[in-house]
Fold this protein.
Amino acid sequence: MERPGLKPRVVVIDDEEGIRRLFQRLLGKRYDLQTFERGLAALEDLQRTPADLVITDLKMPGIDGMEVLRRVKELDPDLPVIVLTAYGTVENAVEAMKKGAYDYITKPVQAEEMELVIEKALERRRLLLENRLLHRELQEKYSLGALIGKSPAMQQLFRLILTVAPTDATVLILGESGTGKELVAKAIYAHSLRKEKVFLSINCAAFPETLLESELFGYEKGAFTGASSTKKGLLEVADGGTLFLDEIGDMPLPLQSKVLRALESGEFLRLGGRTLMQVDVRVISSTNRPLKALMAEGKFREDLFYRLNTFTIELPPLRERREDIPLLAAHFLRQYATKAGKEIHGFTPETLEILLNYPWPGNVRQLEKAVERAVIMTRGELVEAHTLPAEVLQTAEKSLFKAEPLSFREARQRFERDYLITMLRRHRGNVTAAAEAAGIHRTHFYQKMRLYGISEAEYRNPDMMGEEEG
């Protein structure tokens, strides 16, 4: 396992001394490199000291590369293994990949190709470990019900919820659209003394005044045209439990006075009724509107406001708690990848950087939908940037020039990858046509695609191409 501040540990197994010396010369300064002549000795070492990457020759005396691969996967299924193979035995390397090898390198070893494949394998290892850590953190300390966050603002929110939940105080939840106000209401309910009773919710912005009134208070048979039978309202059904009034700021002014009376006395009349109904209901409300401004304009009752906000909780927008984005993204990725039956282990660094830097005007709800879309578009083990929605990518492109300059090598790799993708898009995934247009041999084009983890299948669907290009 990679250790913070320490070099990644790489184990190389090859019976040729020249190959071992080559790896030592090229990689010895960058990695904690250990070389072995025999597979058995390397496996014994791996049992004592975990590694981040194993590179093994396929053809060796004693235990061959296939057996090394099998035993390494038994030891650690997520430990990447790269196999070395002579050019004429590529078929064996492909068979090894089917059995779990991360990639292969052909002999004679080309330094640039080797370094790039190793970097990608170690990056994948790091992402897998990070994703596992995020999931463990979510389970252990960074979640409360469906709420997720390790930022100081979210940790304070968790404390407020746990403080007010066991009481019967009315709670007013304030926050922008998509910040998770209903999740907060449900978390309060789940930790309350009323958790064994019913939890009901209604969106006050979704109903016209007369219909909202009948939903809340119910009605007697014959109260109005179409009232063919008596119906209990939500206040009555929620007796003993919790009622969540979502978007209370959109409640019509005439109805507010009736709600106030019900909250203060616990009594109300059904529409068309003459018998006072008595209920014991805890009310939690929320809004994304500025209630104090509405009060100043005469659009929201001041007495109702003070009745509702015995305890106020304000939810921060996602842009003010960016440190929570990796946790949230990992949670949504696991949720939607499982639902889709896909093995997706994390996000590429570029994708995660874009997610971190986007302002998320739609907050957590928008992030969730962006990750859901990315899962649908992803065909490999990692979510790549091009699977994100167009508005997210466009913002990332605008901020590209403000970013720290890349090294020459990083810039060249990014250019090569983008160039290959552009040619594949232009020729609808036809590698032969793309290579011909690029002026390079088809085999070389395929090699570059493999190095950068590009699949031509992603660019064969014209509808998908149009969607990606926004």
Observations:
- DSSP finds 20 helices and 18 strands in the chain.
